[in-house]
Structures are given as C-alpha cells and as structure tokens.
Specification:
Helices cover 39% and strands 15% of the residues. The chain has 334 residues and is of the alpha+beta class. The strands form 2 sheets. It has a 4-stranded antiparallel β-sheet, with helices on one face.
Length: 334
C-alpha cells in the first residue's frame, strides 16, 4: 500500500449526497466512507470490507496488523469496533436500520443493512456530526475537571452490560497509572522490533507529519535511545489529564474487543461534541504483565482491560490524520 495514497480529502464528505434511492450496495459504500474515519492504533487502518447487497463483512487486514506492539490483536479488534460504530452512527443518520452480528471466526463482524425497517437506537443523533470533526489530541490538557453532565454522557455511551467504562480522576491512582506508563514506554523502546514497526508508520506519514518530519521521526525512533524521554513525556500527559478512561470487558475474545472499540468510538464522538479531547495510551496494555498490574488498580472492577485513554480539555488544536481512500479497503471475496 503506497504511502503517497494517504490523503486528507476523505474527511470532506457531503452528507447531502447520500444516494437514498440508489441500489443498496451503493448506499453501503457511502456509509463506509464514515467508517474509515475511525481511529486506529498508529493510524494503521487495519480493516477491509466486503459488500454483498446490504451485507457488509468487516475483516481484519493482517497486513496492517501491528504484530510487534499488538501481539494478541487486541488493538486490531478494538480498531475494527471503532469503524463498525462509525458505520452504525452513519446508518442511523440516514434512517437505515441494521443488524450487527459477531462471529468467532472470519469475518469477525457483519453489519446487515435493513432499509425497510425503522432504526431504533439509544445513540444521540448529534454523534454523526462529530465523526468528521473528531481528532486524537496528543498535547497536554488544561487543568479543568470534566463536568458531571459530560461524565454522565460518556457513561451513557455504554449500551450493553458486557463493557464497563471506568473513569479515574483521583491523583493517586492517576500517578500509579503514569508510573506504569513510564515503565511500559521504557520496555517497548528497548524492543528493536517495536521501534522498527513504530518507525515504519511514522515514516510513511500515517501520523500526519510532513515528508521530512516523518523521515526524521522514523530515524529517531529506529536508531536512538529515547525510552526515558518517551516515559517522562507520556507520564506527564497522563497526570495532566483530568480523567483517564479504561474500558473493561467481561470476556477477552475478539467480539468483546470489537464491542469495546464501539463503546470507545461512541465515547470519543460524545467527547468531541462536548469540546473534550481524547488520546488513547496503549503501551501498558501492550505488555501482558502490566495489563495484569493495571487490573489491580481498578478498585474492584473485574474483567479484561481493553483500551486506556486520556480525557480532557485541549490546550492546543490537533489536525486530522490522513487516510487511504475507501477503495483501498473494499475487497472481493469468492
């Protein structure tokens, strides 16, 4: 996949051009233009879609799997869940009902459009506009607590009982998470394969840097010892956030991870419409022993941690990351 195909143009979608009277596959492909705006680890965009009438198979693209950082595919399936959620939010916006089915084999999830039914959901309609506005913010946050109304709206993003959103704002527990983050950064940056993989995604411009900055960033990550500096920076980022969110699931299979991704994207969209920035912090969960240690900080919340992220009001704006166009992800199946 050529890095030169990465573009910001995909963010410019005219919702007035939804082909309401077109054949169902055309409507499905229009909705998928919103799905590909979902966040993913290193902006790897590890999804593929097969459209057959109103049936949309969502597959994992293993050639974009971060096998060094994400050895158990947790982040890959969380990313798929984010794309599925955008698809569902967009379908509701255009009054297209749907069914979501999860599978233990491939494809891990299938979304079937049902245009002759009335959509029914607890998702606020305002989430749709946030799809093209949402960004991941890597900067320090302002020293301002999240209001009760925002917290309640974020908690309401959990529509089922198999995913739990834990929000940590106590300084002591945030400090403990920050210490884990620092240690995870040092360990990851000691891993040459991790640095090579991260350097690749930086180098192709997936994180939104200019060509020159991307190449310099790739060289720095790949060849210099920056573990301590990354540890200090990310520890400070966590402690600067008024709240740290953690999604926990009852089970630890791909379906649970996909549903966690759906909840995360729903929360990220709700946060965006409230002026709250979101920044995933994955390094702790990429280390199995630290994932277990993080569980001990959950204050009675049993289950499997799936996604850790900062929440807060941004000090500085962040631009959208570039994406490959939809055609890149549409595949034919026998």
């Amino acid at each position: 996949m050529a890095s030169s195909d990465l573009t910001h143009e995909v963010w410019n979608i005219d919702d007035g051009r939804f082909p309401a009277d077109a054949p169902l596959p055309d409507r499905a492909r229009f909705l998928l233009r919103y799905a590909i705006l979902a966040p993913s680890s290193h902006n790897s965009q590890p999804w593929e879609f097969h459209v057959d009438g109103g049936r949309i198979e969502v597959h994992a693209a293993e050639d974009r799997w971060l096998d060094a950082a994400d050895h158990d595919m947790r982040e890959l399936y969380v990313s798929l869940g984010c794309a599925v959620e955008n698809l569902c939010v967009a379908a509701e916006r255009f009054d297209v009902d749907f069914d979501v089915a999860y599978h233990d084999d491939t494809p891990p999830v299938v979304v079937t459009l049902q245009p002759d039914s009335e959509p029914s959901s607890d998702r606020p309609p305002e989430l749709f506009d946030a799809i093209t506005e949402r960004v991941t913010n890597h900067h320090l946050f302002r020293d301002a607590p999240l209001g009760d109304a925002v917290r309640d709206e974020l908690r309401n993003c959990v529509l089922g009982d198999d995913v739990t959103l834990v929000m940590v704002d106590e300084p002591e527990r945030k400090a403990s998470i920050a210490e884990l983050q620092a240690e995870a950064d040092r360990l990851q940056m000691d891993d040459s394969e991790y640095r090579r993989e991260l350097g690749y995604w930086i180098g192709i411009g997936a994180l939104g840097d200019s060509w020159l900055k991307a190449r310099i960033g790739q060289a720095v990550v790949s060849h210099l010892d920056i573990g301590d500096s990354e540890a200090k920076k990310n520890s400070k980022l966590i402690q600067s956030a008024p709240a740290v969110g953690l999604l926990v699931t009852d089970s630890d299979d791909p379906s649970a991870r996909i549903r966690a991704g759906q909840v995360f994207e729903r929360a990220a969209l709700a946060a965006e419409r409230n002026g709250v920035a979101v920044h995933p912090m994955s390094q702790i969960l990429e280390r199995p022993e630290m994932r277990t240690e993080l569980t001990s900080l959950l204050d009675g919340h049993d289950g499997s941690p799936q996604h850790l992220f900062r929440l807060g009001y941004p000090r500085a704006e962040q631009d959208h990351t570039p994406r490959w166009p939809l055609e890149t992800f549409l595949v034919e199946r026998p």
